Amino acid sequence: MRSAGPVLRQQGELGRLRWLELAYVPGLLQTERYARATLAGGRFDAEDVDRIVASRLERQAILQRPRPPQLIAVLDEAVLRRPVLDQPGLMVEQCEHLAELAAAEHIQVHIVPTDAGMYLGLAGQFIIAEMPDGERVAHADNQLTAQFVDAPTDVAKLAKTWEIVRNEALPRRQSTELIKEVAKSWAC
Q1: For the whole model, what pTM was predicted?
Q2: I want to staple 110 with a disulfide (CB 3.0 to 4.6 A). Which of 65, 80, 169, 176 is the partner?
Protein backbone atom coordinates (compact mmCIF):
# COMPACT_ATOMS: atom_id res chain seq x y z
CA MET A 1 0.00 0.00 0.00
CA ARG A 2 1.10 3.56 -0.63
CA SER A 3 -0.14 6.94 0.56
CA ALA A 4 -1.70 9.54 -1.73
CA GLY A 5 1.39 11.72 -1.42
CA PRO A 6 3.73 9.90 -3.82
CA VAL A 7 1.01 9.49 -6.43
CA LEU A 8 -0.62 12.90 -6.61
CA ARG A 9 1.69 15.33 -4.87
CA GLN A 10 4.85 14.52 -6.82
CA GLN A 11 3.02 15.44 -9.97
CA GLY A 12 6.13 16.18 -11.98
CA GLU A 13 6.94 12.48 -11.93
CA LEU A 14 3.76 11.32 -13.61
CA GLY A 15 3.97 10.05 -17.15
CA ARG A 16 0.42 8.85 -17.70
CA LEU A 17 -2.87 8.60 -15.83
CA ARG A 18 -5.50 6.11 -16.92
CA TRP A 19 -8.77 6.93 -15.16
CA LEU A 20 -12.00 4.94 -15.27
CA GLU A 21 -14.97 6.79 -13.82
CA LEU A 22 -18.57 5.62 -13.52
CA ALA A 23 -20.20 8.22 -11.29
CA TYR A 24 -18.54 11.62 -11.80
CA VAL A 25 -16.38 13.56 -14.20
CA PRO A 26 -12.79 12.94 -13.03
CA GLY A 27 -11.59 15.59 -10.57
CA LEU A 28 -8.84 16.78 -12.91
CA LEU A 29 -11.52 17.64 -15.48
CA GLN A 30 -14.17 19.20 -13.24
CA THR A 31 -15.36 22.78 -13.19
CA GLU A 32 -15.55 24.45 -9.78
CA ARG A 33 -19.37 24.34 -9.77
CA TYR A 34 -19.41 20.66 -10.65
CA ALA A 35 -16.78 19.89 -7.99
CA ARG A 36 -18.95 21.64 -5.40
CA ALA A 37 -22.03 19.72 -6.55
CA THR A 38 -20.23 16.38 -6.06
CA LEU A 39 -19.77 17.29 -2.39
CA ALA A 40 -23.32 18.51 -1.75
CA GLY A 41 -25.78 16.70 0.45
CA GLY A 42 -24.66 17.38 3.97
CA ARG A 43 -21.70 15.04 4.35
CA PHE A 44 -19.27 17.97 4.48
CA ASP A 45 -19.64 21.36 6.11
CA ALA A 46 -19.07 24.53 4.04
CA GLU A 47 -15.47 24.91 5.22
CA ASP A 48 -14.61 21.34 4.25
CA VAL A 49 -16.26 21.78 0.85
CA ASP A 50 -14.19 24.93 0.23
CA ARG A 51 -10.99 23.12 1.24
CA ILE A 52 -11.68 20.01 -0.84
CA VAL A 53 -12.70 22.00 -3.93
CA ALA A 54 -9.65 24.26 -3.64
CA SER A 55 -7.39 21.22 -3.39
CA ARG A 56 -9.09 19.57 -6.37
CA LEU A 57 -8.75 22.69 -8.51
CA GLU A 58 -5.12 23.11 -7.45
CA ARG A 59 -4.33 19.56 -8.65
CA GLN A 60 -5.70 20.46 -12.09
CA ALA A 61 -2.58 22.58 -12.64
CA ILE A 62 -0.77 19.34 -13.47
CA LEU A 63 -2.50 19.41 -16.87
CA GLN A 64 -1.17 22.91 -17.63
CA ARG A 65 2.49 22.20 -16.97
CA PRO A 66 5.02 22.55 -19.78
CA ARG A 67 5.38 18.73 -19.76
CA PRO A 68 2.02 17.47 -18.47
CA PRO A 69 1.25 13.79 -18.02
CA GLN A 70 -0.94 12.10 -20.57
CA LEU A 71 -4.45 11.70 -19.15
CA ILE A 72 -6.70 9.08 -20.66
CA ALA A 73 -10.11 9.11 -19.03
CA VAL A 74 -12.87 6.61 -19.73
CA LEU A 75 -16.29 7.65 -18.49
CA ASP A 76 -19.57 5.85 -18.49
CA GLU A 77 -22.11 7.81 -20.54
CA ALA A 78 -24.33 8.06 -17.45
CA VAL A 79 -21.78 10.50 -16.00
CA LEU A 80 -22.71 12.99 -18.72
CA ARG A 81 -26.45 12.41 -18.47
CA ARG A 82 -26.90 12.44 -14.69
CA PRO A 83 -28.78 15.62 -13.74
CA VAL A 84 -27.56 17.88 -10.97
CA LEU A 85 -30.78 19.02 -9.37
CA ASP A 86 -31.26 22.71 -8.58
CA GLN A 87 -28.17 23.61 -10.65
CA PRO A 88 -29.45 24.84 -14.01
CA GLY A 89 -26.75 25.13 -16.62
CA LEU A 90 -24.19 23.20 -14.59
CA MET A 91 -24.09 20.17 -16.90
CA VAL A 92 -23.90 22.35 -20.01
CA GLU A 93 -20.91 24.12 -18.47
CA GLN A 94 -19.27 20.86 -17.37
CA CYS A 95 -19.78 19.06 -20.69
CA GLU A 96 -18.46 22.05 -22.68
CA HIS A 97 -15.45 22.23 -20.36
CA LEU A 98 -14.85 18.50 -20.80
CA ALA A 99 -15.03 18.77 -24.60
CA GLU A 100 -12.62 21.71 -24.54
CA LEU A 101 -10.10 19.82 -22.41
CA ALA A 102 -10.47 16.70 -24.57
CA ALA A 103 -9.14 18.72 -27.52
CA ALA A 104 -5.74 19.02 -25.85
CA GLU A 105 -3.07 16.73 -27.25
CA HIS A 106 -2.24 15.20 -23.86
CA ILE A 107 -5.85 14.60 -22.78
CA GLN A 108 -8.10 11.89 -24.15
CA VAL A 109 -11.66 11.37 -23.02
CA HIS A 110 -13.48 8.24 -24.10
CA ILE A 111 -17.12 7.47 -23.38
CA VAL A 112 -18.56 4.00 -22.89
CA PRO A 113 -22.00 4.41 -24.46
CA THR A 114 -25.09 3.28 -22.62
CA ASP A 115 -25.88 0.80 -25.39
CA ALA A 116 -22.67 -1.10 -24.52
CA GLY A 117 -24.77 -2.77 -21.84
CA MET A 118 -23.04 -4.54 -18.97
CA TYR A 119 -19.24 -4.35 -19.09
CA LEU A 120 -16.35 -5.18 -16.79
CA GLY A 121 -15.73 -1.58 -15.72
CA LEU A 122 -19.04 -1.36 -13.88
CA ALA A 123 -17.36 -3.12 -10.94
CA GLY A 124 -15.82 0.20 -9.87
CA GLN A 125 -13.73 3.22 -10.67
CA PHE A 126 -9.94 3.28 -10.52
CA ILE A 127 -6.89 5.22 -11.62
CA ILE A 128 -3.58 3.82 -12.78
CA ALA A 129 -0.69 6.26 -12.49
CA GLU A 130 2.42 5.46 -14.48
CA MET A 131 5.73 7.13 -13.74
CA PRO A 132 8.22 7.91 -16.53
CA ASP A 133 10.38 4.99 -15.36
CA GLY A 134 7.45 2.59 -15.91
CA GLU A 135 6.56 2.12 -12.24
CA ARG A 136 2.79 1.93 -11.81
CA VAL A 137 0.49 2.46 -8.86
CA ALA A 138 -3.29 2.29 -8.74
CA HIS A 139 -5.93 4.10 -6.73
CA ALA A 140 -9.57 3.23 -6.06
CA ASP A 141 -12.11 5.05 -3.89
CA ASN A 142 -15.23 4.05 -2.08
CA GLN A 143 -17.50 5.82 0.40
CA LEU A 144 -15.15 5.22 3.32
CA THR A 145 -11.58 4.99 2.12
CA ALA A 146 -9.15 5.34 -0.72
CA GLN A 147 -7.01 2.35 -1.54
CA PHE A 148 -3.57 2.68 -3.08
CA VAL A 149 -2.17 -0.44 -4.70
CA ASP A 150 1.41 -0.92 -5.82
CA ALA A 151 1.69 -4.72 -5.87
CA PRO A 152 2.70 -5.45 -9.49
CA THR A 153 0.23 -8.34 -9.90
CA ASP A 154 -2.70 -6.26 -8.63
CA VAL A 155 -1.78 -3.28 -10.80
CA ALA A 156 -1.42 -5.65 -13.78
CA LYS A 157 -4.96 -6.98 -13.15
CA LEU A 158 -6.32 -3.44 -13.15
CA ALA A 159 -4.34 -2.64 -16.31
CA LYS A 160 -5.92 -5.65 -18.02
CA THR A 161 -9.36 -4.48 -16.89
CA TRP A 162 -8.49 -1.01 -18.18
CA GLU A 163 -7.69 -2.37 -21.66
CA ILE A 164 -10.92 -4.37 -21.80
CA VAL A 165 -13.01 -1.36 -20.74
CA ARG A 166 -11.13 1.03 -23.02
CA ASN A 167 -12.04 -1.24 -25.92
CA GLU A 168 -15.75 -0.86 -25.01
CA ALA A 169 -15.47 2.94 -25.22
CA LEU A 170 -15.98 5.09 -28.28
CA PRO A 171 -12.90 6.41 -30.10
CA ARG A 172 -11.66 9.86 -29.08
CA ARG A 173 -13.38 11.88 -31.82
CA GLN A 174 -16.73 10.10 -31.45
CA SER A 175 -16.53 10.54 -27.68
CA THR A 176 -15.97 14.28 -28.03
CA GLU A 177 -18.91 14.50 -30.44
CA LEU A 178 -21.11 12.68 -27.93
CA ILE A 179 -19.99 15.02 -25.13
CA LYS A 180 -20.93 18.02 -27.30
CA GLU A 181 -24.30 16.45 -28.17
CA VAL A 182 -25.05 15.89 -24.51
CA ALA A 183 -24.06 19.49 -23.71
CA LYS A 184 -26.59 20.69 -26.29
CA SER A 185 -29.27 18.43 -24.84
CA TRP A 186 -28.73 20.01 -21.40
CA ALA A 187 -29.12 23.49 -22.92
CA CYS A 188 -32.67 22.71 -24.06
Answers
A1: 0.90
A2: 169
